[in-house]
């Protein structure tokens, strides 16, 4: 399986545990501070590489030490970074994530170079050679640009998947509508489905996305697992019961597991199970790259661990 993960690349700085930010010049001791590659393209690339896919990542980052670190972390995970373009006038996107004891994490985020990516940056030949394109954060580059990239992929026989970045409250249907006819697998979270479609019911929102052209919608729901919505109906896929340390990167890990499963010819349900297993493995530590697992280990985890009730 040859995958191009295109779009949002972020360097995460994670601090754990953080119960409160000290006032003024105050300080507090923490247990761990880590930096990881992340984003709806970068984080997904990490887990896809672990699950045995050949991954090339494409996006825009800065020519700064933050970008150097991001490239180093991706390459250490086995991701081909030659198609990451380096900007000289815009910094690399980054987030500072204070992780609460229960695993929740507010975000301090710098958009950076991600929003500068455009058609002139796309490695069109490499895209045509891929078997799968995963586009993360199409709303940042515009629906028309995303549609052009995705339609090119489809014209060359490449399967496509899309994950959204913006929180649902900032989403609007016109931000993604033009791209949906070229999306085989849409992988948003529950909040995004409701926010981008304007619907109050999750299934109704997912069906609106299907009616606009998406092949299927696999909605992540945190501890409630995932909801698969296809023209044939809906299926609920439970999450696995684990002790959650940090939820950072769990959505990206689910996307990677789902994409890898579909690439292996598994059913959407079984692919979602692999996605839930990858997310559960990542959730047990700090950051998008937590865990030392491969496809066999993820499958073994899914076969031996209980789903959350």
What would you say about this model in short?
One of its GO terms (molecular function) is kinase activity. With 309 residues, the protein is of the alpha/beta class. It has ten helices and 13 strands.
State the main characteristics:
nine-stranded mixed sheet, UDP-N-acetylmuramoyl-L-alanine:D-glutamate ligase, 13 strands, Ribokinase-like, four-stranded mixed sheet, 33% helix, 309 residues, alpha/beta
Give an overview of the whole structure.
With 309 residues, the protein is of the alpha/beta class. The protein has a single domain, classed as 3-Layer(aba) Sandwich (UDP-N-acetylmuramoyl-L-alanine:D-glutamate ligase), CATH 3.40.1190. Helices cover 33% and strands 23% of the residues. It has ten helices and 13 strands. The protein has a nine-stranded mixed beta sheet, with helices on both faces. The chain is globular, with a radius of gyration of 18 Å. The mean pLDDT is 95.
